[in-house]
């Protein structure tokens, strides 16, 4: 096994991975809108919002940088899933 030359905590890597996967789930929910996979995309996004919200609450103990990054990812996920920028009404 090769040793890692990075001084990054595995906890921070896991927090970052959860944020990226959460944003991908929000994008998937938006992309599946109007298709037969819409329910699956919405449920995936709902679960991801719960996980990212939990990680956001837990990230407070790792300092303000981790908490701010988690809060920004959660806010962006919410914006992606809630905001509707389509021209149709």
Structure report:
By secondary structure, the chain is mainly α. The chain has one domain (14-81). 70% of the residues lie in helices and 0% in strands. It has 3 helices and no strands. It has helices spanning 10-31, 38-58, 64-82. Helix 1 (10-31) packs antiparallel against helix 2 and helix 1 (10-31) runs parallel beside helix 3. The longest helix has 22 residues, at 10-31. It is elongated. 20% of the residues are buried. The mean pLDDT is 88.
Number of discrete helical segments = 3
Please trace the helix and strand order, writing H or E for each element.
Answer: HHH
Distance between the termini: 56 Å
The Rg value, from CA coordinates, equals 16 Å
The helix-and-strand class reads: mainly alpha
Give the oligomer, counting copies of the same chain as homo and different chains as hetero.
single chain
Low-pLDDT regions: none
**Count of strand segments:** 0
Helical content stands at: 55-70%
**Main sheet makeup:** none
Strand percent estimate? under 5%
Mean pLDDT across the residues is 88
The number of distinct structural domains comes to: 1
Apparent shape: elongated
């Amino acid at each position: 096994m090769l040793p890692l030359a990075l001084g990054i905590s595995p906890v921070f890597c896991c927090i970052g991975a959860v944020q990226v996967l959460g944003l991908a789930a929000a994008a998937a929910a938006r992309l599946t809108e109007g298709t037969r996979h819409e329910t699956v995309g919405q449920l995936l996004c709902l679960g991801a919002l719960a996980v990212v919200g939990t990680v956001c609450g837990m990230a407070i103990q790792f300092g303000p940088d981790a908490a701010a990054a988690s809060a920004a990812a959660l806010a962006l996920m919410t914006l992606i899933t809630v905001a509707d920028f389509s021209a149709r009404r």
